Amino acid sequence: MEKLPKLTFDQDPLKESLGEAPAVLAKRKPVDPAPWCPTSEEQKDPSCDPDFPKTITYKDILTAYRAISEEIPRTPLVRSKCCAEFDMEIFYKVEIFYQTGSYNERKAFYALSVLNEDEKCHGVITASLGNWALALAFYGQRLGIPVTVVLPSTTPVYVVGKCHELGAFVVSYGETLDDARRQAFVMLKKRGQVYINGYDNPNVIAASASIGIEILEQLPETDAIIVPVGGGGLLAGISAAVKHIKPGILVYGVQTKTSSSFYNAMEKGRPYQTVVTRNLATSLIVPTAGYNAFHTARGLIDKMVLVNDDCISRAMLHLVEEEKLIVEGAGAASLAAFMSMPNILPELRKKTVVCVLTGGNIDTLILPRCLERAKIIEGRIVKLSVRLSLDEPWEHLKVLSMIANVGANVIQYLSEKPLLDDDFDKTYVSISIIQIFDNSPLIKTVFYFSP
Length: 451
What we know:
This protein is an alpha/beta fold. The strands form four sheets. It has a six-stranded mixed sheet with strand order 3-4-12-9-10-11. It has a four-stranded parallel sheet with strand order 7-6-5-8, with helices on both faces. Strands 13-15-14 form a three-stranded antiparallel sheet. The protein has helices at residues 22-26, 58-71, 83-86, 104-113, 117-122, 131-143, 157-165, 177-191, 202-208, 210-218, 233-245, 261-268, 291-297, 309-321, 333-336, 366-377, 393-405, 440-449, and strands at residues 8-9, 30-31, 77-79, 89-94, 124-127, 147-151, 169-172, 194-195, 224-228, 250-256, 303-307, 352-357, 381-388, 408-416, 427-435. The protein is globular and about 80 Å long. The protein is built from 18 helices and 15 strands. It starts with 7 loop residues before the first strand and ends with a helix. The longest helix is centred in the middle third of the chain and has 15 residues, at 177-191. It comes from Pieris brassicae (White butterfly). Its cofactor is pyridoxal 5'-phosphate.
């Protein structure tokens, strides 16, 4: 049976509890003094030791880059169609055109290729939120290495199914990445496999750095690189690579406000377990920053910024409409940094900036909701509720005519009669209006003053 962390009580250690009433003692608040950590040697990941974190060197990065460049084609770096709108030369490092839809294939290939023959025979196990599991399953199948992935039960069904298709042994466990990792360690002891951390394994970080080298080869004049951050492996790899090649370049990390483990680690000076909640950037919901990643990146990155779901949804909408790219929430986090109001990165105006778009795996049920949310935020969809005195065709016609007169289109029109209202003639209409021009104030004014 798994041992639970020992609890202490939130009280002054110098204050004696003897003599206090039992009712008082019972009300002391239990506090977990530290995040969960493995309790036995078999459960520890030797490649991610919090007491002895590893620094990824440029030599490590070059070794990984040479191996990856022979297997994986260089991904495109494209100039934005809206540079004038952003007041900078903005480029996108597009990491979505892979078999499994994300840059994780770089990491998976290299991490598996450096295993020894005995390790390849026994196979590997990992815990993942989705993208890393897909990539590891894909290259496990290609290289003939058994792969076991432990996914939280909240993982989208299509990701679970795809991992099965790629030959991985799939286990669904718990609600969070930490839950899945704990189960993976339990299974690891029984199976004798190698555990590969998807964001903190040194080989994974070195492989991620290949993106940074490619960016500077494709665009040497780059002034700044904006990187989405979950556990920090990608940020650590890119910063270690580009700062070695071009020390003056700026490297910024972007996290969401509701899963800000790396941001918090930078403020506290060490990784620690933080409370995270679900958001649009599901691949970035990591409760504890990677120890190796933090140790490597902390002295290299120039800034960490936080964004919310509103910024992410607007970035996704912009990429779909203007750049013709379907990017998941985590992948769009880099661009989301420029969607904040007021601008949180004014120092980058007139500079050449690269946003890393890390993946394009998004649930087809979630995508339209994200795009609609962004349009509502930007005032392009207006939702109104109107009360009609009579439920007659001409009353509905009057409403629709007023909408047409201000140059807008109706995308949803729902009419409902309240069953418990005293006046049975009243009808309430909920309307969703998509605008041709920026006329939401006009629409609301027309309805407010209409008889």
